Structures are given as C-alpha cells and as structure tokens.
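Exercise: predict the fold of this chain.
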Amino acid sequence: MTTTPRWRALTHHHLFWPVAVLVILLLVNVPFTPDFFAVKMTDGHLYGSLVSIVLFGSPLILVAVGMTLVIATGGIDLSVGAVVAITGALTCSYISDQADQSALSGVFLALGIGLLAAIVCGLWNGFLVARMGIQPIIATLIIMVAGRGVAQLITDGQIITVNSEPYKLIGGGYWLTLPFSIFIVAAVVAVTVVITRRTALGLLVESVGGNAEASRLVGIRSMRIKIMVYVFCALCAGIAGLMISSNTSAADGNNAGLWIELDAILAVVIGGTSLLGGRFSIGGTVVGALVIQTLTTTIYTIGVPTQTNLVFKAAVVIIVCLMQSPKFRAKVFGAKGGGKKAAAPAPAETAPAADASPKMEVS
C-alpha cells in the first residue's frame, strides 16, 4: 500500500529522470566495454572511463553552472563559447611570450589577464541586458559572433602552443590521484551552492526570474542581480577556457569552446531548470552536464557513425525532456488516473439552488 505513493513521490522528484537516464547511459557502455566501471591506479593516478567522463565534462559543468543562474533570471547567455576562446587565447598568448613559461609569477599574471577579460565580457552582457534593456539572446549574440573574431585576432589565426608545467596542472594535471580540474569544479559548485542556498541571493535570483518588475517594486535591485549573474557566468566560462587550453597546452581561437553554450543550455534544461526563469537547481545542472558528457562517450563507445551522432544525441535529449514533463507522463503512464480526476463533479452546479428568491433590478 505504501510502495506506490513512495514510488510516485520518487518519480516526481526533479532529479529522478536525469539520474535514471545517466545510470542507463552508463550501463549501455558495459556490453561494448566490459571494464567500463573499472578504475585503475597507474603511476599514482586514477584512470578509467568514469574518471574520464568527469575530467572531460568539467568545462561543461562549469559553464552550465554559470548558465543556470542566468537562466534563473529569465535570461540566456550565448557568448560563453566565445569567452572560453578569448580567455584561453589571452592566457596562452601571454605565457608563450615569456622567457620562462614555467615561472609561477608569469603564469598567475596570465591567469589574471584571462579571467579579467572574461569578467569584462560578463559586465558588457549584463550592461546590455540590465541597463539597456536589450533582449538577452541578442545582447549575448554580439560577443558570440565578435568574440570568436577577437580570439582569432589575439592568436593571429594560429594555434598557440605553450610548454608550462604549472599551467598544465589546471586542466591536465593530477592532485591526490585525481585530475586537478575535478577539484576546481567541486570548489566552484560548492561555493555556488553555499552562496545561493545558504544566503538570500538564491531567493533574489529566483524572484527576479519570476517577475523582475515586481521584484523591483518590493525593493530588490534586479539590475544588479542580472549584472551579477552574467559576470558569474562569464567567469565560469573563463575558468572552463583555462581548463580546455591547459589540457591541450594550446589555444585555438576558432574551435575552443565551439557550441559549448548549446550543451550548457541542454544540461540546465535536463537538470530541471525552466527556461522561463524562476526556480533553479545546481545539483540538477551538474547531473545534466554529466548526462551530456556520458552521452558523448557512449556515442563513441557503441560506434554510432559520426555523420549521425548529433541526431542520436538530439533524440536522447528529447526523450529525457519528455520524461521530465508531467503532462507527458500523465498521458503515457497515468491515463486511468487522469480519467478519474476528470470525472470529478463540479461543485459550482449546485450553487444556484441555494438562492431562489427574486432579485430587484436597479436601472
């Protein structure tokens, strides 16, 4: 008797279907790679498919976490891919010009320059959206288009390579047997959760996304909130750009972060955050990003032809979104329950019988 209500409550949790799809995708790999879940220790480092999924999915998780707060305010940021390219291009360009590329002072200064450029991009997006009132999709489209050209100008259209061990640590190094990028992602996610769930900032972001004008009327500075989330989103994209360029020890202004904004938006939606703004879920976004990365790994594992992998990817995303839809689940799995609810009598029909006295008309 109690199993059905508990199961129904479990399936209605916003993380149930993303986690279920993630588990299914992981299990699909087992017939093709029997040791898929095996984690081995080699030269003091942990290796395995699960470690690789988290490692290669780290930039996407960062970008998606920043995108979550932007979407929660009712906005969108299409410029994160260009910010990834700009940050990596500036950082690698500065390091490559140094006599000693492994000098910590030069590396830290390069990191500061790259992240500062990302923050400037976020301020520009926030200014256009919050102050100028431009639609977010148009405001961020400016840097999406121009930013990729800026990255090409920084690199002179070439792929800049660097040979810096300290810089290599960010995206390709290991610490305590695990990839160092995992610790960076864990720190960013933890700080984001603490700030948005242990302080009033999360409620302010959700209120701005629910109704920006009403929030302004009750004293919430919605413009500042919007600028803040766009800066944070750009900063997350900048850190992701450092990871990507560090992992390859190169900056590619043309391909770095290409279309990562679309995967980030998909991760946010799969995680249960509505594109209309309002309530958001950082945990759901992390799971959604892992679903996207696991799906990419699965496509290569099972041998899906390269010319159809995008179609396969889109099909899986559609299935996940449909399974998250209460209306879809009600029609497919709960048709009988829906029919019973629809047959409930309307109480309004008996109301007129209580008053049979004549009314006096007043002209």
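Check your answer against the key: The longest strand covers residues 39-42.
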